[in-house]
């Protein structure tokens, strides 16, 4: 009885091993790239706000071009936090055409800026990350001038 169970177990292991070698898994499947696929090329992948005052205009633009042979479709753009809100073109960008992705940062927050926006599209590189950086400082206040010749009360 033990030999029968051992034999069936051995046959099951061999069958699983042979099946694993003949079937292709997604990790080992060959992915064919479309030579005409769109490509997204940015003028700059980082926008530096520099040092700006709190409450300043937080909108910046990332200009890009579709250098492929098919229309570029951006399906999503997601900021790394709620303080970074991207706006992207919803219509396809034809080959050779340019467009912009606008990014609005909440400048009410003080301190250093180092945020990213992840772009998802049908380009050869399906996911692209662009960044914003800079520093937000408190607004400059001018000192109160005392009027000359004002009598001092005793």
Provide structural commentary.
14% of the residues lie in helices and 38% in strands. By secondary structure, the protein is mainly beta. The strands form 2 sheets. It has a 4-stranded antiparallel beta sheet, with no helix packed on it. The model has no long low-confidence stretch (mean pLDDT 84).
Outline the secondary-structure elements.
Layout: H1 2-22, E1 40-42, E2 46-53, E3 59-66, E4 74-79, E5 84-87, E6 98-105, E7 111-121, E8 127-137
Parallel strand pairs: 2-8
Antiparallel strand pairs: 1-3, 3-6, 4-7, 5-6, 7-8
Short structural summary:
By secondary structure, the protein is mainly β.
Keyword list:
154 residues; mainly beta; single chain; four-stranded mixed β-sheet; 14% helix
CATH architecture of the domain at 40-137: Sandwich
Reading off the top of the CATH hierarchy, the class of the domain at 40-137 is best stated as: Mainly Beta
Q: What's the overall average pLDDT, rounded? A: 84
Uncertain stretches: none
State the oligomer.
single chain
Radius of gyration: 29 Å
Helix count equals 1
> What gross morphology would you assign?
elongated
Order of helices and strands: HEEEEEEEE
Strand content: 35-45%
Sheet with the most strands?
Answer: 4 strands, antiparallel
CATH homologous superfamily annotation of the domain at 40-137:
Immunoglobulins
N/C terminus separation: 114 Å
- Proportion of helical residues: 10-25%
Strand order of the largest sheet: 1-3-6-5
Beta strands, count: 8
